[in-house]
Design goal:
heterodimer; A: 112 residues; six-stranded mixed sheet; B: 114 residues; mainly beta; seven-stranded mixed sheet; 54% strand; globular
Chain lengths: 112, 114
Amino acid sequence: AQTVTQSQPEMSVQEAETVTLSCTYDTSESDYYLFWYKQPPSRQMILVIRQEAYKQQNATENRFSVNFQKAAKSFSLKISDSQLGDAAMYFCAYRISYQLTFGKGTKLSVIP
Amino acid sequence: GAVVSQHPSRVICKSGTSVKIECRSLDFQATTMFWYRQFPKKSLMLMATSNEGSKATYEQGVEKDKFLINHASLTLSTLTVTSAHPEDSSFYICSALRGSGEAFFGQGTRLTVV
């Protein structure tokens, strides 16, 4: 079975500090996409960052960056200069043939 | 980014009645939409894939007759929870797939069956 594992149910970070959320996945496919989604209390799913598996370069979006290790099937999210608005559930996901598979999520708290 | 509108955001219904949830892609055409269910503090579980003009594809364990999906146009998919029971109470989320392969999510619908 294809799975996504987020081993940290909860994390906290001091405002302005950096935090890394872990994600590993298991697939036998070679062509896939990886995503991090944010779900704030409003429960609207928001795309944070995406990574194409065929690209070796790690994706970056402003304060958000990933560490993609394809061989290890690892896809961690680093949030720099954390802000109060970053507090949310974060879901790691991969997509194969248009279908998304989500991890169980990590609840991130930001401490003022 | 693209906009997907889901309606209603909240609904309370009596046990035994049916409830329809709409998912609309407002600024792009979506041949494929997805319906998810999310339990409190849990992840999104894919219920079914909705394909415009054809029957939906349901995930294992999801009752087709209970969760009716219709995707009659390129911008609208509906999920009807038939003969709802309290155990159907949950948060339902739709997403629409744009041509680029990007998925955009609706705001979700909190269903409470009393």
